C-alpha cells in the first residue's frame, strides 16, 4: 500500500545545530507540504512543493528550507535550530485531481522536535 | 490573509450526546475540507464540500457548507468515545492546492 513516512519520529537537538527532517511518500504525488503544529495555532504551512525542483514559502518559512530533487522526498532543514522551533512537524502529500481544489492531503505520522 | 475561526476550542461531552462544531470566516471559499486528528497521528480527511448549502453525511457525522460558502458546521449525533479527537477545518480559496487550517476543536467524548 502507498504510504507517507517521516523520520525520525522524535528528535532532541541543541540551539544552533542544523537539523534535517525526512519525508518520503510512495503515492507518486506531485504536491508535498510541511506543517508545524503548536498548541493554539493548529497546523501552519512552512513550505510546499508542486513538483521536482519546485519549492514555495508558506506562512512560517523563516529559518526553514526545503529542496525537491525527486518525486518521493521533501526533506525539511532547520539551518540553525532555535527554541522557538520546538514543535511537532507534519509532512503531507496530495495528487492533483480533475476537480479544482478538492485534493485529499495524506499526512505522515509527525516528528516531535525539541530544541534545547 | 483570511481570518478563520473554529468554535468551540474545547468540548467535553458524555457518550450519547449530540454536538455541533463550527468553522467561520469572512472570506468566500471554493471548497472546504474537514479532517480529524487522533493523538500521535497526522490528520485524516473526513469530507470535502464544494457547493454552497451542500450537506454530506458520514454515518453519525453531518457536514454542512454555508449558502455563501463562508462557513461550515459539523454535527455529530449520539457521540461515541471513538469520536474523540481534534477536528480541523481547512478551506481553500481560488482552488489553491495548499490548505489553511483552523486551530481546531478538541473533542472529548466520555464513556
What descriptive keywords fit this protein?
heterodimer; A: 116 residues; mainly beta; B: 111 residues; five-stranded antiparallel beta sheet; five-stranded mixed beta sheet
Q: Please, could you describe this protein's structure?
A:
- The complex is a heterodimer of chains A (116) and B (111).
- Chain A is mainly beta.
- Chain A is built from no helices and eleven strands.
- Chain A has strands at 4-7, 10-13, 19-25, 31-38, 42-51, 54-57, 64-66, 76-78, 87-94, 106-107, 111-115.
- In chain A, strands 2, 4, 5, 6, 9, 10 and 11 form a seven-stranded mixed beta sheet that branches.
- In chain A, strand 5 and strand 6 (54-57) form a beta hairpin.
- Chain A is globular, with a radius of gyration of 14 Å.
- The termini of chain A are far apart.
- In chain A, 38% of the residues are buried.
- The model of chain A has no long low-confidence stretch (mean pLDDT 93).
- Chain B is built from no helices and ten strands.
- The radius of gyration of chain B is 13 Å and the shape is globular.
- Chain B has strands at residues 4-7, 10-14, 19-25, 31-37, 44-49, 55-58, 61-65, 71-76, 85-92, 105-110.
- In chain B, a hairpin with a 5-residue loop joins strand 7 (61-65) and strand 8 (71-76).
- Chain B is mostly beta strands and 111 residues long.
- The interface between A and B is medium-sized, with 29 and 25 residues.
Question: How would the blueprint of this fold be written?
Answer:
The complex is a heterodimer of chains A (116) and B (111).
Chain A: E1 4-7, E2 10-13, E3 19-25, E4 31-38, E5 42-51, E6 54-57, E7 64-66, E8 76-78, E9 87-94, E10 106-107, E11 111-115
Chain B: E1 4-7, E2 10-14, E3 19-25, E4 31-37, E5 44-49, E6 55-58, E7 61-65, E8 71-76, E9 85-92, E10 105-110
Parallel strand pairs in B: 2-10
Antiparallel strand pairs in B: 1-3, 3-8, 4-5, 4-9, 6-7, 7-8, 9-10
